[in-house]
Amino acid sequence: MRVLPAALVLGAMLLNFGLCFLKTTGMTVGTMHVAGVELVILSAAAALAWRGVSGTQLGAIIGVLVYIGAMRILNPDLDLKIARDLAIPFLFWTLGVVRGTPQDGDRLVYVAVPLVFAVGLFEFLALDTYQQLFDILGYYIDKGAVEADQTTWMSTRLFANGIRPAGDGRTLFPFLGEHRVSSIFLEPVSTGNFGAIAFLWLLHRWSERPWLNSAYMGIVFICIVLADARFGAMVCAIATFAYLVPLTRHTRLAFVLPFAVVALLFGKAALNPAGIIDNGFGGRLLGSGILLMSWGPAEWFALAPSPIDTADSGYGYLISNLGILPAIALWTMLIFRRGLPDEATAFRTSIAIYAALSLSISGSMFTIKTAALLWFLYGTLCPAQPTEAVTGIRETARTRLSWASPRGSQGGARA
After folding, report:
1. pLDDT in tens, 371-408
2. Is 85 in the same domain as 195?
3. Low-confidence ranges of the chain (pLDDT < 70)
4. What is the pTM of this model?
5. Are residues 57 and 189 in the same domain?
6. How many CB atoms lie within 10 A of CB 387?
7. Which of 67, 115, 137, 347 has the largest CB neighbor count within 10 A?
8. Position 410 in a domain
9. By residue range, what is the domain housing residue 393?
10. Residues contacting 226, CB < 8 A, separation 6+
11. What is the per-residue DSSP string for 107-121?
12. Is residue 237 part of a domain?
């Protein structure tokens, strides 16, 4: 395994975990510290991946940045964090393309899964000790992600969703109690997302090491259960079905997935206009649908802020800060990239399933804690060389130039 790229991905996964430990042991950790460490990781990834960026890609990056800046002038409420959220997939995907191989992806997952499982098991079995070492609630308050008044009603130092409400209860194996394991990610949603990503990778790489990958998939399942990650379990089930039914891997089907999900969100909101928006999966879907239905053209084109907070709707966050047309353009570029091997195409379909479903209930897929791993893994499956069509064009051009050159002409005369 190439050490530096893998270290960057693991560093992205462990960023908040490490800073939370430092904060708990007495260091001052605030928003700027978190942003600074993240910037270092992204800068290192950019430095390693730079030689894999083409002129066309560089032009597209500059164009996106200029566009976001112009939109911020038109809509002062636009969240500039969207630029960072788009940079993470591009940088770590390019890092995987340039510096990684599928075998590197395997080894990275083989390291990450036991790490997440070991810390998660420690948290589950020794919660008091875990909280003494990791004051998660205090850390999120200090970095500005949680309001300080939450300490008045929280019974633990975990993140707000680290304990299922008494009326809600655990979904996966209820006898395990209301505690949801966060492991190295400090909150259970990202633990579930990690479980889904690792499971998808092991599923698509299963034939390389069937017994070993099956054992790791079992460990991943335990992590998902400990986190009571309903979303993660659902993604694993749907992606397994898609993997076993080749028809579902079609590129066009992957492309229409988010549009189909948004249509379902509209339908759910239209049929339940007075429905209860709670923390359950159905309630989250309903809230996302009602949010999107509340928009006019200005909100869809990111020219005006959303009248409803977009924290629980990834589609809402993305579109309200980027606009519907650029979002569709980026999705098209992802899905219709040519020249991919079958394994990369199949894994891309799983990414489409994960993204389409995740965006319906949150923007958690944008966090560097799990996004770095997902896009690096996908990049390791993508060839660094141009497609056959482009290669053929270049070879034809070289041949013509050689015949047109004086040396080429002499060679032809001798023949």
Report:
1. 999 999 999 999 876 444 333 433 443 444 444 444 33
2. yes
3. 1, 148-154, 166-167, 276, 278, 385-415
4. 0.89
5. yes
6. 13
7. 347
8. no
9. 1-244+372-405
10. 120, 121, 124, 176, 180, 181, 183, 191
11. HHHHHHHHHHHHHHH
12. yes
